Amino acid sequence: MNSTLNILSVQSSARSQDSTSRALSRELTEALAAARPTRVVEQDAADATPLIDGAWVKATFTSPDARTEGDHTALAYSDTLVEELEAADLIVIGVPIYNFGVPAALKAWFDQVARAGRTFRYTEQGPEGLLRDKRAVVIVTSGGVPVDSPVDFATPHVRQFLSFLGIEDITIIAADRLNANSEASLASARTKLAEFVDGIDASAQSSEVA
Questions:
Q1: Phi, psi of 183 (to 5 degrees)
Q2: Which residues lie below 8 Å from residue 172, measured CB to CB, with a gap of 6+?
Q3: How far apart are CA 12 and CA 46, in angstroms?
Q4: Using CA atoms, how far apart are residues 139 and 11, in angstroms rounded to an integer?
Q5: pLDDT at residue number 203
């Protein structure tokens, strides 16, 4: 029996219905669940993720043993998001490209989980990510922007952020230029979804044999 795969699905589309990034993310998690035991935690970043403020910044840079009740209150939402991230083996992120970049909701989630001493730390050699041994699948959708083109500032942003947290195993699945040829774009994305599921399942079986 394969061990349980803990998945965190982070969605950021402003559309709760008829969202391509949400639909493809759901297809991926359902395919993984059909292949092996999974536990899926869903985090909807578009559902009023709070922006960080002065109280949050003050609290996060205060030593944990010196934090006041107010500090803990300021970090309570962030603590929940970080715990979800720490518990995940695989992070699935749905990223519609808005105005060449990531949705504001996803940036708010980034800010909430970038925690010095929890998800990264400062060293003499520079910042070091603390969330190693995790995988990420980033499902990037766009109406007209080609993914990884010079005008795509979303995909490299997500790659850089995940790498900053120590997550280096990143798969990008693109369903881009949907306004030009949605059928071909979705077909290509679904092929890559299937390849990823096959690969992760084969990897799990190999680990069991070993």
A1: -60, -50
A2: 138, 140, 147, 148, 155, 159
A3: 5
A4: 10
A5: 61
Rounded CA-CA distance 183/62 in Å is 51
Give the separation between CA 175 and CA 188, rounded to whole angstroms.
7
Calpha distance 170→173 (Å, rounded) = 10
Confidence at 1, pLDDT banded by 50, 70, 90? very low
Q: Is 191 in contact with 24 (CB distance < 8 Å)?
A: no
Q: How many residues does the chain have?
A: 210
Stretch (H or E) spanning 82: helix 69-87
CB atoms within 10 A of CB 23: 17
Task: Return d(Cα 26, Cα 22) in angstroms, integer.
Answer: 6
DSSP 65: G
> At residue 206, does pLDDT exceed 90?
no
**Rounded distance between C-alpha atoms, residue 49 and residue 166, angstroms:** 23
- Global pTM reads 0.93
Cβ neighbours of 11 (radius 10 Å) = 27
16 near 48, Cβ under 8 Å? no
Share of the chain above pLDDT 70, in %: 94
The H or E element that residue 8 is part of is strand 5-11
